[in-house]
UniProtKB/TrEMBL annotation:
The lineage of its organism: Bacteria, Bacillati, Actinomycetota, Actinomycetes, Micrococcales. PANTHER family: ACETYLTRANSFERASE YJL218W-RELATED (PTHR43017:SF1), GALACTOSIDE O-ACETYLTRANSFERASE (PTHR43017). Belongs to the transferase hexapeptide repeat family. The keyword Ribosomal protein does not apply. This is Acetyltransferase. Keywords: Acyltransferase, Repeat, Transferase. One of its GO terms (molecular function) is galactoside O-acetyltransferase activity. The keyword tRNA processing does not apply. Gene3D superfamilies: Hexapeptide repeat proteins. Coiled coil: none annotated. Residues 7-61 form the Maltose/galactoside acetyltransferase domain.
Length: 196
């Protein structure tokens, strides 16, 4: 099976073998390319964004990761405009990661799209299954948050620091906890006071 066939299986939510030569080689290549991006810190934004555009499926304007950024493949990550990720972001993108516009990630945010098989023999043999993760527009993810496979975070929502997101979060709410649950809606009272 070639890399394109493996990618199609991942994106279709089918079982795939994570230990095949083409996927091992793809991950090794991605480590080298993220090393190059991380080493470019401090250079012109346009230069850094060109490195990202070559690594990721799609990026909008004004996309920035503080060091260090790590992803599994890169080719299943699509990011909109005005994106910022604080230090030590990890994106394991086998199942696809889609991020909208104006999204902020705190330090040490991890997004996981892939699960290993549950039975030990299957896991040792390299079997995995992936489901996509989506962060819609205007989302803010606090520090040390882990987002699990198959999750969507709705437009304008905030996820509190240290949360583990195992289920989708609707739009316009604050969610927090392990596992993350909706705490309350975001309201007009949450705005910056006039004259500030």
């Amino acid at each position: 099976m070639n890399l394109d066939q493996q990618r199609a299986r991942m994106c279709a939510g089918e079982w795939y073998n994570d230990l095949t030569d083409e996927l091992v080689a793809a991950r090794e290549n991605t480590v080298r390319r993220t090393d190059e991006y991380n080493a470019s810190f401090g250079r012109a934004s346009a230069e850094r964004e060109m490195l990202l555009a070559d690594l990721l499926e799609k990026i909008g304007r004004n996309v920035h990761f503080e060091p260090t950024f790590r992803c599994e493949f890169g080719f299943h990550i699509s990011i909109g405009e005005n994106f910022y990720a604080n230090f030590d972001c990890v994106m394991l993108d086998g199942g696809g990661i889609t991020i909208g516009d104006n999204v902020l990630l705190g330090p040490r945010v991890s997004i996981y799209t892939t699960n290993h098989a549950l039975r030990p023999a299957d896991r040792a043999a390299g079997w995995c299954i992936a489901r996509p993760v989506t962060l819609e527009d205007d989302v803010w993810i606090g520090g040390d948050v882990s987002i699990n496979p198959g999750v969507t975070i709705g437009t304008g929502s905030v996820v509190g620091s240290g949360s583990v997101v195992t289920r989708s979060i609707p739009a316009g709410v604050i969610a927090a906890g392990v596992p993350a649950r909706v705490v309350r809606p975001i309201t007009g009272a949450d705005g910056v006071p006039p004259g500030s």
